[in-house]
User: Fold this.
Amino acid sequence: MKTSPVTAQDLQRSVIAVPPLARHDDLSLNEAANKALLGHLEAGGVRNVMYGGNANSYNVGVSEYARIVDMLAGLAGADTWILPSVGPDYGKMMDQAAILRTRAFPTAMLLPMSFPYTDAGLAEGVRRFTDALGKPAVIYIKSSGYLAPESAARLIEEGRIVAFKYAVVRDDPSQDAYLSSLLQAVDPRWIVSGIGERPAIVHYRDFGLKSFTSGSVCVAPRGSMRLLHLLRDGRYDEAEAVRQQYLDLEDCRDSISPIRVLHDAVTLSGVADMGPMLPLLSGISAAERERVAPVARALAAWDREAAAA
Assistant:
């Protein structure tokens, strides 16, 4: 596992995968399936892997946390950056900081809080967490106005931030006043596009972001990595052709549930059996699986064919 401090170059070297976490029927960790998924990502060129919302980290107990992060560290290749998540509440993140401080992870991501919090309280929580961790953190921004631009800039100046994962969904991602205001306060190298392939081109071309996270990369890692390389080269027409391949699965995720669809899509695509979801979430219905299965398999087959070509 990569343990050196995370730089902007690290964020940009690879799509940042956001995979689900595999479990057995009794909800214990399925190490073999998690290894298969991680190996699938690494074989496709992915070296940045973030275990957050898609891994159902919101519902993970502190009592299980050490087992999870130790398993992931042990499964990762030597050059793979594993990024665990903490929180979203203050008490949980501080308990998790004590666990992570004794391990070599170079950073952790703060899951987004929806209620109750204030801007000043969030910033103070970041300060206390990074002090307890002894390392800077990633902040997950999922709602408009979540953190004031001046607060974001101040946390960067204090050396407390590796990156912001920006995942505020817009009907038209080119029209985003909050992202524009953040970019007036902080350099774009600090902000990662955090909503998968759908807005990746707009965020890269129009806003100057240089990396993106993806859940669908777990099904088709080579295509997602090619999209990143095409964006880097400014080949936007070719990038759009690649992006289109992901939209059917992204449409399923958006219309049903981003987390639940991805969890079962990895299984249905044949990559690895993710098993059941940890409550308080649950897998998709039988009817939904009938809709998702052909889409996931088609994306996986396209990725294999593109790699062979």
